[in-house]
Write a structure and sequence with these properties.
The complex is a heterotetramer of chains A (about 150), B (about 650), C (about 450) and D (about 110). Chain A has helices at about 5-30, 35-40, 60-75, 75-85, 85-90, 95-120, 145-154. Chain A is mainly α and about 150 residues long. Chain A starts with a helix and ends with a helix. Chain A has a domain at about 55-125. Chain C has about 450 residues and is mainly α. Chain C has one domain (about 1-460). Chain C is built from 19 helices and four strands. Chain C has helices at about 1-15, 25-40, 60-80, 90-110, 115-130, 140-170, 175-185, 190-205, 215-220, 225-250, 255-280, 285-300, 310-335, 355, 360-375, 380-390, 395-420, 435-455, 455-460, and strands at about 50, 55-60, 340, 345. The chains are: A mainly alpha (about 150), B mainly alpha (about 650), C mainly alpha (about 450), D mainly alpha (about 110). Chains in contact: A-C, A-D, B-C, B-D, C-D. At the C-D interface, helix 5, helix 6 and helix 9 of C face helix 2, helix 3 and helix 4 of D.
Chain lengths: ~150, ~650, ~450, ~110
């Protein structure tokens, strides 16, 4: 008789077999005429250039870092949530426990939010766009001349 | 904290104020600060005395734990007992007077503030020396006063001769200090402590004449030789007269030079335990006394004469100590402090009046011109020549009596010495103050009595020189020997190792006759001097005009030249020789090769620091693996056993 | 305990202070906060006890350590300018991070549970990674930061594995529990053994002891001088006393096991540190190697579980703190001398002619060098003396000999700057020192001399 | 070794002896170390370090389960948080370097040496 872990093992093996089967089938069925155009990675019509790291905009990193931090802090909410609603404790302290742990968690979150506020105030969150450059060039030739020519040859 | 700690603190503060800000402090403030500092410590010395009287036993005040090495603990602490109290009074009292005197004497000098700073520093070190409760603190003070005397002798450092004199003093003191230091090390290794109380307590257990004690005492005495200018280390003191006269009075007559005697009296137990050392002390003392006295006979520089007389007086003190008559020796320290300071200050006042003329052959007939100085100087002269009832008589006579009791030969020489002393002192007095003036014209009409700030100390000291002796009347006067009774507790150690060590076993008749003899000698000497220098109005000649024995004496037995030949040239030759052979051939190649070796190793090692992170990580990993394999090798095997166990489960 | 709480909040406040009046109040505020924190340490004075469910342990000695750390921090902050030379500098952040890192340092000295040890180490290290890389445009700074970070994180991993293994062996994180388990003569399990070795390795890395020292010279050279000073003083002190608590108060029964590892590291640190320092041109790099050798000496003080080990270590740390503060401080004071392409020259040659240009600075430098070399009449002499007397033992006799030999080598390179001070230089005009520097220098130098003249003032007091 | 008081441990866990967890964790840890030692790309080294940390987490959780002592799991939370902070700082440093030298190959950074 297999144990729970045995079943899990079976699932894993099964998954791999499935994947292999599907891909193999596709390989058999589809036509296979590769050329370098086809092998290019699709960049919405553009030719991919440079290392793959370049294409990432630096701004993503900042946001991502901030995100990682705040997201991981959540891990402390889990043990808290276990004891937060603990009947026994609440009865022993006739309700005080709930408020206490609540307050505690709010202090924690407040400190976190302080960090967020700081990042905000420092302007790490606002998404700076490249501003439009207008070409200052002015040509002496009046534009109606061009239009005349266009009219003439149209 | 006890008030006692304040006593050395005041001069230190004074030194810091005058020394650090001597450019910024107005000249009018300098002297008050300096004098005030010493005066305050004088006052607090009285307070300490009263405190001591109330309790009646030794007070030891610990400032802080200083050094602890294993079980050897040296605290920074002060000891107040009969001896240090007396020294306190002498140092601070005489010191204050001389500060006062300097205010007048140095008033025209450029380095006024510097001078007072140095004086205060000296006072501070001297207080450390006499108040310290262990040999190390005494040694610090010992070095400190040496440094100050060096600074003050070379005070007028424009003149290179003075600089040489200062260096001479310093080097000779260093020689002595070396001995002192060795003595201290011996004490540490042998007794495992430097505290007086502990060391002496332990010393009591030793038999008289034990070798180690003899060694210790001898080395300590070498230190005393240096500080207190005994043969062979005495030639620095006369040259030290290059310094300003107040300095000569304070350091080179009253206080510093007597620190050797203080040290011996302080450690009297050890000395009582080693008769050998006592003999050495006595003989060196009498030799010094005679040699210095004879030299003084033919000196024409007023301060040089006094310097040599100081040396010979110190010799007398050591004779006293050598006879185990510690009280008498110390008694002479006290009286000598009074009259020799008086004489020096008087000489200073004379020099001041004669507009910096020191040669007595160019003086004469000053009696009427500078009355106060003359009278006080006369008092000093009488006191030193040992004519009753002045101070010098009692102390010197006590020493002589003890000497007679113990060692006739030394006694004869000592008597001779005292005769000579009386003679040259009166010679000095008569030549300087009587006869007709021999100076230049403008010197003559420039002659004037010194300001009050200089004459007051003279008078005070004169007073002490007269009455100072009465603190130690011989018992034949049926007066209480105040000093003896007061100092008695100091000697209980010696008493226990050698009962009745101090009392002189001679009958009253002998004592009377001895006393009479010495008085008669002194008077004869003075009369003789009177006949020679006043009746016949002889004027001393310069050494170049003298011949035979006189010349030898005038040229100080050529000892200086001897030292120059033997030591200075000898050392330079030796060092040259060593340099050419040992240094160049052997030492420097060795050193250089070591250097190159180290450099090479350094270069090789910096190569492993090649700056690539991956390499660093790899090195770390390797070393971790190494440690694990090397230290866990065996356990790893047992670990696999466990694994098998785990699977089998 | 109270300094920890206070500093964590004051750090946050400092962050936001940066927005007012372009943060001109940040530095004074930081000093104020640190002062308050050091005072708040006294709340627990003579009240030994445990905090946070027996995670932190408070007693007078630990408080003393926190005090030493905080006071050093005050000195360092005082001689820091507002990082004007760094472009895009957010000085408020740096001061805040310094305060946070102090929280870590204090945790490391007061911990009772290994969790706290780990947290302390990490808080300290992560802050130091950031501070090392503050000069963003400076390639050397970047390199130092990445090296420090990668190696440090790696060491952290090792340390964690060690802690986990110890937990496996003992079933608890409290060091008292560990010593209890060891005392009750159970067979020392393999877990405990591996755990101890790995924990030790992790801490040795943070202490910059060979053979885990490779990061030290590069990081010390690349980081801004003020943070190099921070690393050399506060981090070292914290780590050494963490080691003291681990080895002497929880694993003393396994002395045989760890003393050999320690002995090896000591020998390597002394040799590598002293010999590599000889050829250095950069002053900071030389001090880095010297700090490796000092790490060796500190470990020497840990080598034997003796009564006086804590005293000697504290004495050593204090005298080392004072000496290196003045040494690096002089370098900081000369920051604007002889700058080359915008960056200040940090070679020993920058001291040329200092004797004529600023006798004060040269005196400070010379005394600090003498103290680091361990010449008598300075604190350094007594600290080495005490440590060696503690380690004196037939078992590791050769280590003492080695230490003495290499101290002689040390004299050789510590005198390089001293000689340079007296060399003639083309520049002659006097150097102006700002008064705060003056005060700090006077304090540190006097401290060094006082320790040298009256060692028992401190040694007897502990 | 550990005192495995079987009463408190759920049967579910009991089916796999502790030693296996220890071995798995150790293997993961060693994989991490090897990754750190042999890769040149800062990011990958960094990931390997994270792998080491997670191996430790696994180890701690296993121990705490077999000790039926929650402290180990508490510690795991701490480790996670700290690891996140480390990730943030580490990535920031790597990005900073990439901005300056357009590469994250640690082999290129060897200006500080000797």
């Amino acid at each position: 008789m297999l144990s729970q872990f045995g079943f899990i093992l079976l699932f894993i093996v099964g998954a791999f077999l499935m994947l292999a089967g599907i891909l193999g089938m596709a390989r058999l069925l589809r036509p296979d005429k590769p050329n370098d155009q086809k092998l290019l990675s699709y960049e919405s019509g553009e030719n991919a250039e440079g290392g793959s790291l370049v294409s990432f905009n630096i701004r993503f990193y900042v946001i991502a870092l901030i995100f990682v931090l705040f997201e991981v802090e959540l891990v402390f909410l889990f043990p808290w949530s276990v004891v937060f609603g603990d009947k026994q404790l609440i009865e022993q302290t006739n309700g005080l426990w709930g408020w206490f742990s609540m307050a505690e968690m709010f202090v924690f979150i407040f400190i976190l939010s302080l960090g967020l506020v700081y990042a905000w105030a420092q302007g790490h969150l606002d998404w700076l766009r490249p501003d439009q450059k207008v070409n200052p060039f002015k040509s002496e030739i009046p534009s109606d001349l061009y239009e005349n020519i266009n009219k003439k040859y149209s | 904290m006890s008030l006692i700690l304040l006593i050395p603190l005041f001069p230190l503060i004074g030194f810091l104020i005058n020394g650090l800000g001597f450019k910024n402090i107005p000249k009018s403030l300098v002297a008050p600060i300096g004098i005030g500092a010493s005066l305050l410590s004088f006052v607090f010395a009285f307070i300490a005395y009263s405190e001591f009287k109330n309790t009646g036993e030794v007070i030891i005040v610990k400032a802080f734990d200083w050094i602890t090495i294993g079980d050897l603990n040296i605290p920074f602490s002060f000891q107040i007992d009969q001896l240090s109290i007396l020294m306190l009074f002498i140092v601070t009292g005489v010191g204050t007077l001389i500060h006062l005197y300097s205010a007048g004497y140095m008033s025209h000098d450029a380095g006024y503030g510097k001078f007072f700073a140095y004086l205060n520093l000296f006072l501070f070190s001297m207080l450390l020396l006499v108040m310290g409760s262990n040999y190390l603190i005494m040694f610090i003070g010992w070095e400190g006063v040496g440094l100050c005397s060096y600074l003050l002798i070379g005070f007028w450092n424009k003149n290179s001769d003075f600089g040489d004199a200062a260096r001479k003093a310093f080097i000779m003191n260093r020689v002595g200090d070396l001995g002192f230091l060795i003595g201290i090390f011996l004490i540490i290794t042998h007794f495992g402590s430097l505290e007086y109380t502990q060391v002496f307590e332990m010393a009591k257990q030793y038999p008289v004449g034990s070798g180690i004690i003899t060694a210790i005492t001898l080395f300590l005495f070498v230190g005393a030789m240096g500080k207190s200018a005994q043969i062979p280390l005495f030639t620095w003191l006369p040259d030290a007269m290059a310094g300003p006269t107040p300095v000569s009075a304070l350091i080179h007559a009253a206080t510093m030079v007597t620190s050797g005697i203080y040290m011996i009296v302080r450690s009297n137990v050890l000395y009582t335990l080693s008769p050998v050392t006592l003999n050495v002390v006595a003989w060196i003392g009498v030799a010094t006394a005679l040699v210095a006295a004879t030299i003084a006979l033919f000196q024409n520089d007023i301060k040089k004469v006094l310097a040599f007389s100081t040396v010979s007086q110190l010799g007398y003190m050591f004779i006293g100590l050598g006879m185990m008559a510690y009280t008498s020796g110390f008694f002479h320290v006290i009286t000598h402090a009074f009259f020799k300071a008086l004489l020096f200050l008087g000489a200073g006042s004379v020099i001041h009046a004669m507009s910096d003329e020191q040669d007595i052959t160019k003086m004469g007939g000053l009696w009427s011109k500078i009355k106060i100085t003359a009278v006080t100087f006369l008092i000093g002269t009488i006191a030193i020549s040992g004519i009753p009832p002045f101070a010098g008589f009692f102390s010197k006579d006590e020493i002589l009596a003890h000497t007679f009791a113990h060692n006739k030969a030394i006694w004869v020489l000592a008597m001779l010495g005292s005769f000579i002393t009386a003679f040259y002192m009166f010679r000095l007095f008569f030549v300087t103050f009587t006869g007709k003036f021999r100076g230049t014209q403008e010197q003559e009409h420039h002659v004037h009595e010194s300001p009050l700030s200089m004459t007051i100390p003279l008078m005070v000291l004169a007073g002490f020189s007269i009455v100072g002796g009465f603190i130690g009347m011989p018992e034949i006067f049926h007066q209480p020997h105040f000093l003896e009774n007061f100092l008695a507790p100091i000697y209980e150690g010696s008493e226990s190792v050698l009962p009745g060590f101090g009392n002189l076993g001679i009958s009253h008749e002998t004592e009377w006759s001895l006393m009479g003899l010495s008085v008669v000698l002194a008077l004869v000497a003075s009369v003789f001097a009177y006949v020679v220098f006043v009746k016949n109005a002889t004027i001393p000649k310069d050494s170049s005009e003298l011949s035979g024995v006189k010349k030898i004496l005038a040229d100080k037995y050529y000892i200086d030249d001897l030292y120059l030949k033997i030591f200075s040239n000898g050392t330079s030759k030796l060092s040259k020789g060593l340099y050419n052979s040992f240094e160049t051939k052997f030492l420097s190649p060795l050193v250089n090769s070591t250097g190159t070796l180290i450099n090479f190793a350094g270069k090789q090692l910096t190569r492993i620091q090649n700056g690539t992170t991956g390499y660093y990580l790899f090195a770390m990993g390797i070393s971790i693996a190494f440690i694990l394999v090397f230290f866990l090798g065996l356990d790893v095997l047992s670990f696999f056993k466990n694994i098998l166990g785990g699977f089998s489960k | 305990m109270y300094p920890i709480l206070f500093l964590s909040f004051s750090g946050l406040i400092t962050l936001f202070l940066g927005f007012f009046q372009e943060g001109k109040w940040v530095k004074p505020a930081t000093i104020l906060f640190l002062a308050i924190a050091s005072i708040s340490a006294f709340i627990d004075w003579n009240k030994p006890g445990a905090y946070f469910f027996n995670m932190l342990q408070v007693n007078n000695f630990n408080l003393l350590l926190s005090l030493v750390i905080l006071i050093t921090a005050i000195l360092i902050v005082a001689i820091s300018d507002n990082f004007k030379e760094i472009e895009y500098a957010h000085s408020a952040e740096y001061y805040a991070i310094m305060q946070f890192s102090l929280v870590g340092a204090i945790m490391m000295t007061n911990f009772q549970s290994l969790i706290m040890l780990f947290l302390g180490v990490e808080i300290l290290s992560v802050s130091m990674y950031v501070l090392t890389g503050t000069d963003k445009r400076n390639l050397r700074g970047n390199e130092a930061a990445i090296k420090y970070f990668l190696l440090g994180a790696f060491a952290t991993g090792i340390l964690l594995f060690g802690i986990a293994m110890i937990y496996g062996g003992v079933g608890a994180f409290e060091i008292d529990a560990i010593s209890g388990t060891l005392a009750s003569n159970q067979a020392q399990s393999l877990f405990l053994y591996i755990g101890l070795v790995m924990l030790l390795i992790g801490l040795l890395f943070k202490l910059a002891a060979a053979p885990f020292h490779f990061w030290t010279p590069d990081v010390y050279e690349g980081a801004p001088t003020i943070f190099t000073l921070f690393m050399a003083t506060i981090v070292k002190t914290a780590v050494v006393f963490a080691l003291y608590r681990i080895l002497h108060q929880s694993f003393q029964n396994m002395h045989l096991s760890w003393s050999y590892i320690l002995a090896g590291c000591i020998a390597l640190s002394l040799i590598i540190g002293n010999l590599s320092a000889v050829k250095q041109i950069s002053f900071k790099r030389m001090l880095a190697f010297s700090s490796i050798s000092h790490a060796g000496f500190l470990l020497l003080g840990l080598l034997h579980v003796s009564k006086t080990a804590d005293k000697s270590l504290l004495f050593y740390s204090v005298s080392y703190l004072l000496a290196s503060t003045s040494a690096f401080g002089v370098l900081l004071a000369l920051k604007n001398e002889r700058t080359e392409n915008g960056r200040s020259n940090e070679n020993i040659s920058v001291f040329k002619g200092l004797a004529t240009r600023s006798p004060f600075l040269s005196a400070v430098l010379i005394i600090s060098m003498l103290s680091l070399a361990g010449i008598p009449l300075t604190g350094g002499f007594w600290s080495k003396f005490y440590v060696l007397t503690d380690a004196a033992n037939d078992q590791f006799f050769y280590l003492i000999v080695l230490a003495l030999l290499l101290t002689a080598v040390g004299v050789y390179y510590y005198f390089k700057p001293i000689i340079t001070v007296f060399e003639k230089s083309d520049i002659q005009e006097a150097i102006t020192i700002n008064p705060i520097f003056k005060i700090i220098f006077v304090l540190t130098t006097l401290g060094t001399l006082v320790l040298g003249l009256f060692p028992d003032l401190l040694y007897g007091m502990i | 070794m550990l005192q495995e008081n079987t009463a408190l441990i759920p049967d579910m866990i009991k089916q796999i002896p502790l030693v296996n967890y220890v071995l798995l964790a150790s293997i993961l840890f060693v994989i991490g170390i090897v990754g750190v030692l042999i890769r040149r790309n800062a990011l990958i080294i960094f990931m390997s370090i994270e792998l080491m940390l997670n191996a430790v987490n696994l180890l701690l959780v296993a121990f705490s389960a077999y000790n039926s002592d929650p402290n180990g799991q508490v510690f795991v939370f701490f480790i996670m948080a700290v690891a996140a902070a480390e990730v943030a700082v580490g990535l920031a440093i790597i990005v900073m370097i990439y901005r300056n030298i357009r590469s994250i190959d640690i082999g290129l950074l060897n200006k500080l040496r000797g």
